[in-house]
Specification:
Largest sheet: 9 strands, mixed
Strand order of the largest sheet: 1-2-6-5-4-3-7-8-9
Order of helices and strands: HHHHEHEEHEHEHEHEHEHEHEEHHEHHEE
CATH topology of the largest domain: Rossmann fold
Number of helices: 16
Strand content: 5-15%
Number of strands: 14
Helix content: 25-40%
Shape: globular
Distance between the termini: 41 Å
CATH class of the largest domain: Alpha Beta
């Protein structure tokens, strides 16, 4: 399915709508579905706010024009949800930003990507392992995604500058945080990209970092947690990845090191152990062959990856009870299209059928598809669920088996 192509005026209308007070990704999509376009939604917004008993500030087209011009002077541009250059994995998440600002090489967002996240107060061993993991994944043609924070994030970006890395910011593209990573940000855009959904000039606040984390996982086929305490933003990223239907890996560590508590906890709760890059590369091999099971309706939450649920409300969005909620988006052979949630269409016992077909001897995905009589994408979805539950394991060559 070809992507949409916004006119200059439509892009300004989109920017004006998403920058208006109390409009987030959910309310933006709801308004677009109801009124058929951003211009009509902007016209209707004052009355809708009045009906909700609120008065909200609407971003003017002049303000939107100034931001767009400032981004162009910086060397960046906005990509809209549904356009050909908008990353497909990010488009698949429930809270996909309507517009993302990108500085650097936009083609870096089209590559298969792996997120590497972890502690700001990382150990030397953790930093060394992160660098090796990022280099080897880059050599396997994966882009590396992280949040440009100190510690593990910085090590991941540094090691993958030559092969391509994407840094997602919690603030505007002109508000690099932490400041000591400004030189790193300037270097990585030569082969990679900086990405943000926040306005230029926006200084990140505490609630903006979970928003950023959902984009880190949303851009990636898998998230690897290298080092993390039990209450850390990295575990929130892992929770987002799981809710988005992406693979979650964790690097094991010493039980005596508090920086390893989060990763060890993730492994106990069903994340895949990662001791080398090959573990990630092998698990993602079927996805790179065109079998893409990882989409947002597939939520089998790890039991307690964080005390702060990743599904918490992160936007003060206008309550629009009469506006239909956005549809789920699933990927078919032609691209993305609004469809019912897979939970409403998948047979309830498909997981049991697949598990019964699996034995301790690894079998190929094609064999499972033939034996079950189900589409490959459905079998892939179920296999990811079984992996997260610890009931199935992938092997080199794209084969899979039961764990016991």
């Amino acid at each position: 399915m070809a992507g949409i192509a916004l006119s200059d005026r439509q892009r300004l209308d989109w920017l004006s709508l998403i920058r208006s007070e109390s409009i987030g990704p959910r309310s933006f999509r709801s308004l677009m579905n109801r009124f058929g376009g951003a211009e009509a939604a902007l016209d209707a917004l004052p009355e809708l706010a009045r009906q909700a008993g609120r008065s909200i500030r609407i971003c003017s087209l002049a303000e939107a024009e100034r931001e767009m011009a400032a981004l162009a002077r910086l060397g960046g541009r906005f990509i809209a949800l549904g356009e050909a250059e908008y990353p497909l994995p990010l488009q698949a998440i429930d809270s996909a930003p309507p517009l993302v600002a990108v500085l650097g090489q936009i083609e870096a967002l089209q590559r298969s990507a792996v997120a590497l996240v972890g502690s700001r107060n990382a150990s030397a061993a953790g930093l060394k392992f992160t660098g090796r993991l990022a280099r080897e994944l880059g050599e396997a043609d994966f882009a590396i995604v992280s949040g440009l924070a100190r510690g593990i994030d910085t090590a991941a970006h540094e090691a993958s500058i030559e092969t391509g890395t994407v840094a997602v910011l919690a603030g505007g593209l002109d508000e690099i945080y932490p400041p000591q990573n400004i030189p790193l940000a300037q270097r990585l855009i030569e082969r990679g990209a900086l990405v943000s959904e926040m306005p230029l000039g926006w200084v990140a606040r505490a609630r903006d970092f979970p928003r950023r984390n959902r984009l880190v996982s949303g851009l990636s086929l898998a998230t690897v947690v290298v080092e993390a305490a039990r209450r850390s933003g990295s575990l929130i990223t892992a929770r987002f990845a799981n809710e988005q239907g992406r693979l979650v890996f964790a690097v094991p560590g010493s039980p005596l090191d508090p920086r390893a508590e989060g990763g060890n906890h993730l492994i106990r709760e069903g994340a895949t152990l990662c001791a080398e890059a090959a573990h990630v590369i092998e698990a993602l091999a079927p996805l790179r062959q065109g079998n893409l099971p990882l989409w947002p309706e597939q939520r089998r939450a790890l039991r307690e990856t964080s005390r702060e649920p990743a599904s918490e409300v992160m936007w003060d969005e206008l309550d629009l009870p009469e506006v239909a909620p956005p549809p789920n988006f699933v990927r078919d052979e032609d691209g993305f299209a609004p469809q019912p949630s897979v939970e409403a269409t998948r047979p309830l016992d498909l997981g049991r059928i697949v598990l019964d077909l699996l034995g301790l001897t690894p079998v190929a995905l094609d064999d499972l598809v033939r034996a079950s009589g189900q589409p490959a994408r459905e079998i892939n979805r179920v296999l990811v669920e079984l992996e997260l539950e610890g009931a199935a394991r992938r092997h080199p060559g794209g084969t899979v088996s039961r764990t016991s």
